[in-house]
Amino acid sequence: MAAKPRILHSSKDMIWSLIPLLVICAIVAIASGNCSVGLTGQASDDRTPSFDVANALQADARDLPFPIRRPATPAGWKPNSGSTQPVGNTRVSTVGWISDVGAYVQLSQTDAAEEDLVVKLGGGEALGKGTRQVGGREWVAYETPDEKKFWITDLGDVRIAVLSRGPDEDMTEIATAVLAQQPLPGRA
């Protein structure tokens, strides 16, 4: 059979040429084991990046002028992030976990004013939602229009915030765990 003249080729011909190539690529990727989906999003998912919360908080305790507490990681949770960022005229130490139900839970500690921390965590859109008692302390609850929740408690020399879009039980668990700890050894 004679080849089609070039002028008669259309995008349909290109699609029919690409389909077998894509099928071959998919077969090779699956057979080689270099393909993964990771749809669970749970803390046990190996694709969730791991982070050394203990060393990060210890470094922040040595570097920052306010007390830092290191909560015990709850069973089934996986630490996955940490940073130190500016807030107000100081800095905030932040670490995060993926809880056993797949929700991200963040812990922030700073000596900045509560108002500055609210702006940092809520992007200027947070509204107060009352108070709650957790771990023997009063926490001020905030929520943003995109359903991000965070609670802040003032320990005098440090403000502690717990943030999540997940269940309140996860926030309560990390809030209780952080208050149960003494500050890490810090600056001499």
How would you characterize this protein structure?
The chain has 188 residues and is α+β, with helices and mostly antiparallel strands. It has a domain at 53-179: MucB/RseB, C-terminal domain (Phosphorylase Kinase, domain 1, 2-Layer Sandwich), CATH 3.30.200.100. The chain is built from 4 helices and 7 strands. The protein has a 7-stranded antiparallel β-sheet, with helices on both faces. The relative contact order is 0.15. The mean pLDDT is 88.
Short description:
The chain has a domain at 53-179: Phosphorylase Kinase, domain 1 (2-Layer Sandwich), CATH 3.30.200. 29% of the residues lie in helices and 28% in strands. It has helices at residues 11-32, 53-63, 114-122, 168-179, and strands at residues 78-87, 90-98, 104-110, 127-134, 137-143, 149-154, 159-164.
Give a topology summary.
Elements (H helix, E strand, L loop, with lengths): L10 H22 L20 H11 L14 E10 L2 E9 L5 E7 L3 H9 L4 E8 L2 E7 L5 E6 L4 E6 L3 H12 L9
Antiparallel strand pairs: 1-2, 2-3, 3-7, 4-5, 5-6, 6-7
Helical content class:
25-40%
Q: List SSEs in N-to-C order.
A: HHEEEHEEEEH
Radius of gyration: 24 Å
CATH class of the domain at 53-179: Alpha Beta
pLDDT averaged residue by residue: 88
Rounded to the nearest angstrom, the distance between the terminal CA atoms is: 87 Å
- Order of strands side by side in the largest beta sheet? 1-2-3-7-6-5-4
Name the shape in a single word. Answer: elongated
| DSSP strand tally | 7
Output the CATH topology of the domain at 53-179.
Phosphorylase Kinase, domain 1
Strand content: 25-35%
pLDDT below 50 for ≥5 consecutive residues: which ranges? none
Based on the coordinates given, report the CATH architecture of the domain at 53-179: 2-Layer Sandwich
